[in-house]
Design brief:
By secondary structure, the chain is mainly beta. It has 1 helix and 33 strands. The chain folds into 5 domains: 49 residues, no CATH class; 111 residues, no CATH class; 72 residues, no CATH class; 57 residues; 37 residues, no CATH class. The strands form 5 sheets. It has a 15-stranded mixed β-sheet that branches. Strand 28 and strand 29 form a beta hairpin. The protein starts with 20 loop residues before the first strand and ends with a strand.
Length: 375
Amino acid sequence: MPDTKITALTALTAADPANDVLPIVDVSDTTMAASGTTKKISINNVLGCSGTATLASATITGNLTVDTNTLFVDSANNRVGVGTASPATKLEVADANGIPLRVGDIASAPASQTACYVGMATATLAGATNGDLVFVPRTSASNSITLWTGNGTASERYRIDASGVATWSNVGGVAGTAMTLNSTGLGVGTSPAYKLDINGVINTNSDIYALGGRLALYRSAGSSYIDWSSGQSLILRTVTSVGGAGPSTIATIDSSGNVGIARSPGARLDVQGSTSDSTAVALYVRNSVGNTMLNLRNDGRLIVGTGSVDNLWLEPNGNLGLGVNTFGTSATYVLGLKNATAPTTSPAGMGQLYVEAGALKYRGSSGTVTTIANA
């Protein structure tokens, strides 16, 4: 850059930043005078000088643009953009993909972007797209912090109020409160009155359900479930669907400890037959290898045996058979005895009554055998 002399001072109409110069005194260079040496500097040198400039104040009228959109101040709308030259809220920070963080009053969102908004939202946030996240701190109505999401129109999903109560709302497209956590407990579909309070059906791998006022263990449609009802009865049922109408009761244990099979118990053990067939068995008692030791039929017959032999047969008309189950025509209150193997010993203090070859005999404790009636 050649030396330039100061001549007539006139108004500068167009600056040449590379060649137009300014006189400056270099106070550190005392080669020409003790007060410093006068030197020249271009406008570009001033703008590109190193060091830190300290300004008492600075006022910029109009927009401020730094490196196109690194920082942009929108003076017309009083907005600041970082990474964008068209901020939509008081402060908008955008990355290279145009996905912004927005802070400020929120009325609508551009449908073409997925965004995170922080600020005050209207009742519904029009234009919010799937994936938009709206965080609204301390709403004036309840001093709450809320979280909004939506597709097309966002709605409130989560809220923490001033007392710390957390509420989940509008879940899965269903309007209203879905879950509430407060000082009492967690309520699903209801305000909690217990540590865990659930209103509706609980499905844990198709095994556990809450049905109305009952807690139920359930497998699948057509299977059995066990429920504890509000009357404190433990009930085993068979149903065709969850909560289906008219489930069949298999067994009931009431609050007094009474057990009912296929009915509500009216005694310690109350059993009802499963069919109207009089020969059907209502109650079985078996031994350790599965042989029937006792069974009670629907017609009232009581049978005691080992599975292949009816050792005792008691009919509703009073007939009692030992080893027999048939009686004479029109017989009632008859004792029937099967031909026995005659005893060979006489236990002390007792007599034995038996039938041998059709004759009724008695053996006393001394071993004397008396024929009471011939065959």
